[in-house]
Amino acid sequence: MRIAAAYDNGNIFQHFGRTEFFKVYDVENEQIVSSEVISSNGSGHGALAGILAENNIDVLICGGIGGGARNALVEAGIEICAGAQGDTDAAVEAYLKGELANAGVTCDHHDHEEGHSCGEHGCGHGKGHSCGGCGGHSRPGIEGRNVGKTVRVHYKGTLNDGTQFDSSYDREEPLEFICGAGMMIPGFDKAVADMEVGQIINAHLMPEEAYGPVNPNAVFDIAIAQLPGSEELEVGQHVYLYGEGGQQVPVIVTAKTETQITFDANHEMAGKELNFQIELVEIL
User: Fold this and answer.
1) For the chain, which has fewer Cβ within 10 Å, the N-terminal or C-terminal residue?
2) What is the tens place of the pLDDT at every residue in 75-86?
3) Predicted confidence (pLDDT) at residue 147 exceeds the cutoff of 80
4) Does 283 participate in catalysis according to the annotation?
């Protein structure tokens, strides 16, 4: 069996139609035997199903996905597990254990698979709100001996107060990516670009080099009466809303009253300075 996960910086990418990379896993006897990262070659959502079919993918694990893409994948005989979040390796392991559940609610009034219907409200829901960080990371213009090469690194990420937010050491599996291809946040790519195998460095990234500044316009209110199903949502819950272009946008519920619900479409690391200890393990 072959499983593909929409891939972005080691995590599940949340906008299937704009997926630039997939991490593909070969599975035997419910165990991962190998994995690799492949590029979508800039293909639009209409061609992504074909790319996955050409690579003999049996299962797709992704975040948000539209109805058209869903239909194309079903026609290609590819099983879809949408609504996943977080680390791609962990998501695949959970799938193999039968423990992978949709993270949050896929809000679509045409599709009630999750028992919630949140309508077609999103980043531009008629009130001039823009979503800022809804898209993927831009491709950083960097130079270095490792640019264009597939590298494997171990890393630990912490906030300025010392709080650890991620670590490949804890997963006992290095992170693999193509340096300079836009798979990583810009500052991480730049840090690895000129490293030597075995070298360990510390990198301090300002928000502009990481997930960008907090966009206040990405926080917006919607009347509960205008968003069927939202009465069941809770503060802190991750859900998906439709943006103006029909794409699904991940948001978090930040406040709720009897009549109004507040969503935040900023990335959870937006506006934060990040610290990474990076070890270059291998250049493939």
Assistant:
1) C
2) 788 888 887 878
3) yes
4) no
Burial category of 187 from C-beta neighbours within 10 Å (exposed 0-12, middle 13-18, buried 19 and up): buried
Token pair belonging to 204: 């301090």
> Does domain 104-284 correspond to CATH entry 1.10.1060.10?
no
- The three-class DSSP label of residue 260 is strand
Instruction: Establish whether 21 is a catalytic residue.
Output: no
Active-site position among 13, 22, 155, 276: 155
User: Strands 59-61, 11-12: parallel, antiparallel or unpaired by DSSP?
Assistant: unpaired
Active site residue 240: no
> Catalytic: 165?
yes
Of the listed ranges 68-72, 92-96, 107-111, 182-186, the least confidently predicted one is 107-111
Q: Is 22 a catalytic residue?
A: no
Q: Are 38 and 50 spatial neighbours (Cβ–Cβ below 8 Å)?
A: no
**166 tagged catalytic:** yes
Catalytic one of 211, 240, 242, 276: 211
Count of beta carbons in the 10 Å neighbourhood of residue 281: 16
CB contact at 8 A, 230 and 261: yes
CA atoms of 222 and 48, how far apart (whole Å)? 33
**Which residue spans of the chain are classified as CATH 3.10.50.40?**
104-284
Which CATH class for the 2-103 domain? alpha beta
